[in-house]
């Protein structure tokens, strides 16, 4: 901000907040009515300077000016005052989360809640399979030479897969007891590597039950740990209904961006690796929707580890002071819910 005077910062701030509110190019007369004690002519001079510095651009010669990505980046990093959620709003979010059942609908219901609160599209990314914590692993005999492996994750999701194996019921009891001792608190990725190491150990080669247990464990986790993350986008209609995407080109760009959700996830993964919250503005996301979208994302955790991410996809003129705290609160609520379920599981074991 060293290249901007106090007057320029004041006018740029007013220009950004007015554009966020109206979606229309902002002119000097509009700003003069917003409490800036300068003549329209003086304001025009400052606007011209800001345009020359790359903070504003003028869509048409006779139109007002629109903030650029550079302006929004400055606003986000150094100018905006976040509007923290009230205790009542935080309590409401936590209550809504407590009503969401664990399992496959958890991501979708989370996305719907955040989309409803923010008024635009929300994206929720599940934990990568290898980072998910395994709660139970059981093998059920289905027919001679075949077992059904049932994997129950700490977040309540369940995976099933059939394995070719001939194991007696009495041996399965020993297998389950042995695996229960090593599964607790470990992720699928950690267990996959552990089973592989144990299976190769010389001591295991001479212990029939341990050998079978680790072979079955490795087989059950082989595909599960390599599975990709689930991606849910809710509130597409809210985003597509915004005025900046009313023309055919803008609509097409947003639809294509939402259809290529993996690109959004890669962007979140890359940026969240360094911090727990990120705001990507316009062309900072590359060619995503022609630079017309911004993404606000936050990581949520499970047992202290980054599990997945949750975020908002909206136009560059998003109400950042409102939306950033909403995304943060949602990520915190998801982390708290995971921790609470872990504690409840521990209490049940006792």
UniProtKB/TrEMBL annotation:
InterPro entries: GAF-like_dom_sf, HrcA, HrcA_C, WH-like_DNA-bd_sf, WH_DNA-bd_sf, WHTH_transcript_rep_HrcA_IDD
Top-rank taxon: Bacteria
GO molecular function: DNA binding
SUPFAM superfamilies, per database record: GAF domain-like, Winged helix' DNA-binding domain
Chain segments annotated as transmembrane: none
Domain Heat-inducible transcription repressor HrcA C-terminal, chain residue ranges per copy: 106-324
Keyword vocabulary terms for this entry: Repressor, Stress response, Transcription, Transcription regulation
Protein's GO biological process: negative regulation of DNA-templated transcription
Function: Negative regulator of class I heat shock genes (grpE-dnaK-dnaJ and groELS operons). Prevents heat-shock induction of these operons.
Family: Belongs to the HrcA family.
Name the UniProt record assigns to this protein: Heat-inducible transcription repressor HrcA
Taxonomic path: Bacteria, Pseudomonadati, Myxococcota, Polyangia, Polyangiales
């Amino acid at each position: 901000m060293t290249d901007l005077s106090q007057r320029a910062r004041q006018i740029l701030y007013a220009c950004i907040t007015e554009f966020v509110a109206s979606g229309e190019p902002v002119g000097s007369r509009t700003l003069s009515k917003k409490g800036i004690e300068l003549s329209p002519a003086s304001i025009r001079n400052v606007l011209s300077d800001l345009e020359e510095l790359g903070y504003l651009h003028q869509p048409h010669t006779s139109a007002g000016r629109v903030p650029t990505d550079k302006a929004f980046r400055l606003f986000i990093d150094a100018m905006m005052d976040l509007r923290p959620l009230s205790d009542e709003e935080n309590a409401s979010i936590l209550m809504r989360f407590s009503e969401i059942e664990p399992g496959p609908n958890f991501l979708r219901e989370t996305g719907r809640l955040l989309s409803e609160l923010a008024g635009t599209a929300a994206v929720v990314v599940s934990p990568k399979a290898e980072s998910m914590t395994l709660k139970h692993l059981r093998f059920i005999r289905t027919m001679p030479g075949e077992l059904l492996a049932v994997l129950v994750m700490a977040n309540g999701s369940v995976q099933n897969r059939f394995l070719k194996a001939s194991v007696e019921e009495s041996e399965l009891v020993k297998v389950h007891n042995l695996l229960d001792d090593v599964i607790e608190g470990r992720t699928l990725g950690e267990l996959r590597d552990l089973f592989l190491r144990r299976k190769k150990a010389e001591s295991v080669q001479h212990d029939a039950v341990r050998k079978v247990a680790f072979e079955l464990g490795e087989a059950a986790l082989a595909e599960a740990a390599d599975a990709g993350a689930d991606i849910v986008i809710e509130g597409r209609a809210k985003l597509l209904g915004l005025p900046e995407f009313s023309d055919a080109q803008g609509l097409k760009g947003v639809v294509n961006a939402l259809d290529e959700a993996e690109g959004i996830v890669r962007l979140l993964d890359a940026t969240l690796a360094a911090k727990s919250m990120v705001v990507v503005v316009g062309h900072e996301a590359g060619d995503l929707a022609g630079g017309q979208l911004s993404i606000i994302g936050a990581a949520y955790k499970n047992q202290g580890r980054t599990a997945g991410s949750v975020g908002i996809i909206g136009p560059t003129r998003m109400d950042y002071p409102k939306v950033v705290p909403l995304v943060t609160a949602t990520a915190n609520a998801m982390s708290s819910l995971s921790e609470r379920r872990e504690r409840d599981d521990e209490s049940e074991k006792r």
